[in-house]
Amino acid sequence: MPAMRMRVKTRFNLRLTGGILALLVLSGALLGGSVLQANSIQERARRFTRPVEFDFTRWTLDALWGKWEMLSVGGERFLPLDERAAVVEDYLSAVEESRKAETYLQEALSNPEEALNERTLQELRSHFQAATTQKETLAPWAEVVLESQVSAILYRNGLTLGGQPIPPVSFHLTRPPQALIVSPREVIRQEADISLQPRLSPDAVQNLETEVEKALNVSALVVRTGGIGVYPTMVLESTDLNWVCEVVSHEWTHNYLDWHPLGVGYGASPEMRTINETVATISGQENGALVIKTYYPERVPPPSPPPPASEEQETAPPAFDFQREMHHTRVVTDRLLAEGQVERAEWYMEVRRRFFWAQGYHLRKLNQAYFAFYGAYAAAPEGAAGEDPVGAAVRLMRKKSPSVGAFVRRMAWVASWRQLQTMAGDGP
Question: How many domains is the chain partitioned into structurally?
Fold first, then answer.
């Protein structure tokens, strides 16, 4: 699941005093883009979401308090250099153990064929509680270590000022909110992005989507998010360190862009949103991979296997390629919608969803809202973006840049899709 950018952003000014980072909260939530009108799709959809919307204020205050506690004890400087990577590995092991303990307990409580005695159940509960406590104890230390390591990579790539990333890398491992994405049925375009509580039941999610679609005649989808660029940023708790480092770098890039024209114009148009997300994705992938290579070399993914010999290639059926098939689905859907065949496009997307399901990709829904959300992440040539030229222009700018740092610094000053076209050589 890609990391996610929010229309509502929380910004903070930060400074260094005597080598200790002080967090000063200077402003609340700001709207990225034009002020929402009372009759907008976003506001109309909120009639259904208000009881289950996510409380960013409370989450941010709790996260800042945790960061302040770590700063008060010296953060990662308290840990010897040769033990920092081990702390992160210990945290990942604790996350895995906590998940296993939760699974064992849930299965024991719901098994219809074997009722366990109370003593055994209590042992499972105790084990789950102990594993959860261990995970929560290690999480702040893992966070400060990774913040330091990501900062060092950003320095190496020239994305710092006076040796420090601005803003400083700061994130919290958590369960980010889900998001209700709304698109018109006639065209793929994100019209609403509303953050919801992270633990909504599947039934509640489905009922909400149905209510919004029927009342507003739109396409709706609730998606799970991997990260959100508030400050400190939210990053989904995971045992996949490669993914965590990528998301931390991705969300920091959004924080960096917030202070430049590209980030300020995030919500100005669908093209600007795609530029933002694609720049952050490329930055996250490259900086995250360098963190792994530098500090956790044993976790570097193995190289891709060589292509099969020509004779084998002729006889073996082609492997299923999710990105290529999703690209094809988006292209056909766009064409049908452009022809005004809305119902046929929706029928086609459902047929394709069942096809993906049969291939092992269990998509809950595939509709206009799905493409409106995932199509903004266009770092790869194929995928949910279809033939949208925005992603291709951003990728071309990366090829023209000597490093990922130079690429991010240059793209930060893009203020419009027309400007990017000119920079890439495609504009007037």
Answer: 1
